[in-house]
Amino acid sequence: MRSASKDLQIKLTVTSDEHPELHRALKAIVEPRRRTRRLKELAAMGLLVERSGTFTLAAPASLEPATEHVSEIRVDAVSMALWDDKAG
Description:
- By secondary structure, the protein is mainly alpha-helical.
- The chain has one domain.
- It has 3 helices and 2 strands; from the N terminus they run ααββα.
- The chain has helices at residues 20-27, 32-52, 77-87; strands at residues 57-58, 72-73.
- The chain has a two-stranded antiparallel sheet.
- Helix 1 (20-27) runs parallel beside helix 3 and helix 2 packs across helix 3.
- The protein is globular, with a radius of gyration of 16 Å.
- It starts with 19 loop residues before the first helix and ends with a helix.
- The model is unreliable at 68-73 (pLDDT under 50).
């Protein structure tokens, strides 16, 4: 069992004015525990993005890029937030 002193509890308000895409994506997840889990996943991904400075997904080998120089798909925040929720 984890010690309470090691846990970090945060009360967080996500407003549509400050973060419209995040607000829209999280609001679309109806079940509170799934919403919380998704927010944690997004925070972890955000930390990785911040540390690496970029976020891209490699295009599957079966997809041919529109031009020779396009080799990756860039994903917006709402698409990523809803991606896992639709699968789970």
